[in-house]
Every structure is written in C-alpha cells, then in structure tokens.
Amino acid sequence: MTTTASALVETLEDLGVEYVFGYPGGRVIELLDHLPESDVDLVRPRDEREASVMAETYGRFTGQPGVLAGQGPWIGSLGMIGQMEARLSSSPMVVLTEASERGEYSTLAPYQQARGDYGGFSLPSILDGVSKEWWFPRTPVETLRSTQLAFKHAVAGRPGPTAIILDGDAITDDVPDDPTPTAWDAASQTRTWDAAPSASDVADAVDALEGAERPVIVAGNGVHAAQAYDELAAVAEAYDCVVVTSYLGKSTYPETDDRAAGVIGSFGHEGANQVVSEADTLLVSGCRLNPMDTNWQAPEFIRPDEQTIVHADVDARNAGWVYPADVGLIGDAKESLAALADAGDASNDWAMERAATAEEWFTAPECEDDSTPIKPQRAVTEIEAVVDEETIVTADSGNNRFWLLYYLQTPAVRTYFGSGGVGGMGWANPAAVSAALTTDKDVVAVAGDGGFSMTMNSVETAVEYGVAPTFVVLNDTSLGMVRQMQSEDGDIAGVEFHDTDFVKAAEAFGAVGTRTTDPEAFAAALEDGKAADVPHVIDVRIDREEDMADTLASSFYESVGGLHE
Fold first, then answer.
1. Do 427 and 456 meet the contact criterion of CB atoms below 8 Å apart?
2. pLDDT (tens digit per residue) in 59-81
3. Which one of 352, 506, 523, 547 is at 20 to 30 Å from 19 when CA atoms are compared?
4. Nearest-angstrom CA–CA distance, 316 and 214
C-alpha cells in the first residue's frame, strides 16, 4: 500500500514539477516528508509570502504551474500576495495547503482549525475569493484526482491559481489498490487543448487590418502567457503596424525595434498614448485594458465610435469587456496571432515613421544627469546599460516601477516583468530569486526602500540556493509615491522611513552590499553584481525631489483629473 502523501509526490514527479516553493507546517509536513527522496526540490524561503511570489513568478516564466505549499492559516494570510498576483496577472499556480484539521478535536474550542466549522475560520472561503478553483478532498483517491484537476485548471483558458486543501486522513491514509472511481494517469488527466478563433472572426479581423491606414497593436500579458512573441512580430510585419504594450505586456515586443512605440497608460510613454489615440484600427491582444492601461478611460484616448477595435483574448468574457469590440478573436494568443499572420497582409505610409517619433519619449535630459544624489532617470539609464537579451529585470510597485517602465528600453522579449496584477510591494525580490532559479539568466531586481525591506529575506534565500540576482534599492528613505501625493510636507502619516543600513543587512545575509550616491559608482556596482556568483545589494541614493507623477503622467491621464492610485 502507498500513502496518499507519497502518491501525491509521485504525481508531482509525473507532471514534471521541478520545485515546490513553501514552508513546512501542519499536514503539509506529511507531503514534504517524501520530497527528499523525489525528483522535486523544495525551495524554502523565510516565509509564505515570499514563497507565494516565487511560485507565481515560476508560473509566469514557464507557463507551467508554480507549486506553493504550506500550512493553511499562513497560506491564507501571508501567502495570499502571490496568489492574488497570480489571479490578476494570469499566472498558473497550484496551492497545496491544509486546514489544520485535528480530527475529533476540531470542533472543541479549535486551535488553528481552518475547515470553517464553528469556532474556527474558513480557509475555503478565503481561497474562494482568489483562486480559479479549489478542492477540499476527503478521501485518498479524491486527493489525487483533485490535484490532477488543479494542475489542469491552472493552465486551461486564462491561467491562474488553483488550490487543494489536504484534509486529515485524506493525506495520511493509504491509497486503495483498486479504487472506484479510478485515479487516472496524471499526465493524461491534466492534458489541455489550446482554443483558437473561428475562421469567420479571423476573416473579419483581416478585413479590418487590411483596410486600416493607421493600425496599432496593443500587446498585453496574454502574449507573455502564451509565449506568442514570434507570432506578435509576424502580425506587426504582415499588416505594417505600430506596436505598443500594456504595463504587464512590457517586453512582449523588443522596445528597440523600429515598430515599437512604448508602453501605454497613466504613467506610460506619451508617444505610445498618442499613437493609440491616432490609430484608426486597434488590435488588442491578451490585454484586459484595465484603468491604468486606458488612462482611466480618458475620452480622447480610445474611442470605439471612431476606431475599429479587434480584441483577441483567451476568455470570451474579456473581449469587449471595457470597450465595445468590432471583432472578437477568442483563443490562445499564439493561435489567434498565428491565424492573422497567415491570412493577410497590408502596408501603409504611417507606421514606421510614427513609431520613430514616438520612441523619442524613451529618454530625457535627466537620463544623462551626473548630479548626486542620483536622478532616478539616470539610475534607470545605468540599469538599462547592463540589460541585454539574457538579462531579466523584476520591478516592484511604487515610483520605481514607473521610472523603469518609462526609461528602460527593453532589448528583447522576456527581459522585463513587474508586479502589475494586484501590484503588491515586495514582489521584486522573491520574483528575482525565482527567475534566477527558473531561467539561469542574469536577474536584476529593482525596488524602492519600502518594497525592498518587506522581502529582503529573499537575499538570504538567494545565497542559500546558490543564485546571484543583483538587488537594486532605489532609496529615497520614504514611501515615495505616497509622500509625493502630499499637498505639503507632513500631511500624510507614515511616509518617512529611518535610514536603514542595507549594506550591513546584505552582508549579514551572506551577500555583498554597496551604497552608491553617484552614477559612475552605481554603473560600476551593477557591472560587479552582474559578473558575480553571489548576490549583490546596491543601495542607490536617489534624488527624492524628482516627482514621478508630475514628470511621467500622460496628457490623457491629466485630462481626467490626476492621481487615481
């Protein structure tokens, strides 16, 4: 006989799971007890928050579910940030957790109990608010079948997080030798098929693109999810389009390409926003068009009454969700874009010249400023200098990500990823560790001092697991984005931080720490960090008076009244 926990680990092996990101606790210990003898490696950061981000990032990079494991009360609290990001950023994730079920004691003034019975709390209710689907199996066979379904649902259609709540005997009991119903082979049970748009919808989209004089593609995170980079480039070439991206779609198309116009949105490139406004036809691929992307629906930005909108999305509910679409292409982005590339072609006298003009917004005089403390624009310029086709940047939330979004011109696909689904602070550090483990590429994590502090334990995790991201702290000793919302100094509480010595913290974790205040020293520190085989933390003192919103807010965003963050 085989215990359910052992069979569950065998299922993970059968499905090709490389890593489980998690923290021991509760009934999950039963599962982790079998990992040392398996082909699955455990990555154990210092808490469930960081583990959840690592699992989300793994799913984002590979297209296969990142696996998060841990005790229910902490997966349902600390571990929610990665799950929320996975839900809103369409990253496949499978959560293996438990309800701290204690048998006959579970209804007697319970301790940690999360089944939802009287006196405890309901982990199923918590997971229901975030996951695509969740299961609470009560028998060994149900546990195995539910886990298979969790992997299937995590990648089917629009990807996202799913969860299994391992319950008492259902993880500790033996699996019956000849169960009814049967637990099928894991690889067969988890098989999925890509959806593709109908021929008539493709024909309508081709007509729209071939008839366009000013065609623009808006590429979103769905292109990343489908890894449809070649197909996107083929459509842009075939129909002579300008390409812009959403924030989550940044690096779906090289921003150094002649057709690239930048990132749209509230703090996106003014040139990219203007291009979208001038378009007569928009092909929106894998982008929900959230408020940040649409400049909070500024009336002069996207105008369905005047522009033809072709909206391609894996979920039929999302095509035409925000703006009425003239054509919907329902299917995987790779399938939809490949169908368009093969079905037509067109040319115009607008796209290439217009994209060249738009690209002027990638730089500013401050990008060459030598003053100290370092201008954030100049800091990004130095980061850009070390980002090649084999380097990944992970960007945190706050001012830092918008400086990066604007002034870091990505040289290739899959070189930039940011927290932009739920947009939680502290994402960049654990994401960088996961990216380094997953891809074997150079990784640069960029965060403000607030976000870096939240998850700086990830530096130690990098040391422990033998990867060497470079962690950049754009340090203004404050919660910069909120501080700059003040009408006068001191009228918002909680925005100032004391001056933390991140160099000493880095050294305590076993990494190399450097503090820089001038651009040349920062450039040298970046080169050192990229070349090293141990993590580097670079504490960059930036000019805190450079106001991100005043500098980067698009004219369309300003037309609807300012800061909606």
1. no
2. 999 999 999 999 999 999 999 99
3. 506
4. 26
Contacts of 434 (CB under 8 A, 6+ apart): 21, 43, 53, 54, 55, 57, 58, 61, 66
Instruction: At 30, list the tokens.
Output: 């039963």
User: In 429-462, which positions are buried (b, 16+ CB within 10 angstroms) versus exposed (e)?
Assistant: bbbbbbbbbbbebbbbbbbbbbbbbbbbbbbbbb
pLDDT in tens, 25-59: 998 999 999 999 999 999 999 999 999 999 999 99
What is the distance between the alpha carbons of residues 56 and 67, in angstroms, rounded to a whole number?
Answer: 8
Contacts 24+ apart (CB under 8 A), 492-499: 497/449, 497/450, 497/453
pLDDT above 70 as % of the chain: 99
What DSSP element (H or E) covers 174? strand 174-175
What type of residue is 375?
K
Q: Which residue has the tokens 């918590």?
A: 126
Q: How far, in Å, CA of 360 to CA of 141, rounded?
A: 60
User: pLDDT by residue (tens digit) across 359-412?
Assistant: 999 999 999 999 999 999 999 999 999 999 999 999 999 999 999 999 999 999
Looking at the DSSP assignment, which residues form a beta bridge with residue 368? none
Q: What would the DSSP string read from start to end of 43-88?
A: E--SSHHHHHHHHHHHHHHHSSPEEEE--HHHHTTTTHHHHHHHHH
> Averaged over 425-447, what is the pLDDT?
97
First and final C-alpha spacing in the chain? 56
Question: Judging by beta carbons within 10 Å of its beta carbon (0-12, 13-18, 19+), is residue 520 exposed, middle or buried?
Answer: exposed
The 215-219 sheet, strands edge to edge: 260-263, 242-245, 215-219, 281-285, 308-313, 327-330
Say what angle helices 229-238 and 333-343 make with each other, to 10 degrees. 30
**Under a CB-based contact definition with an 8 Å cutoff, are residues 346 and 209 in contact?**
yes
| Token reading at 98 | 């438990």
| Omega before residue 373 within 30° of 0, cis | yes
Residues 503 and 511: their CA atoms lie apart, in Å, by 9
Per-residue confidence (pLDDT) for residue 563, from 0 to 100? 65
pLDDT at 348 over 70: yes
Number of other residues whose CB lies within 10 A of the CB of residue 122 = 14
Q: Which two tokens stand for residue 158?
A: 């629009």
Q: What is the DSSP string of 435-448?
A: HHHHH-SEEEEEEE
Residues 6+ apart with CB under 8 A from 62: 438
Query: Residue with structure tokens 């003053």?
Result: 371
Helix (H) or strand (E) holding 124: helix 123-128
- The mean predicted confidence, pLDDT, of the chain is 95
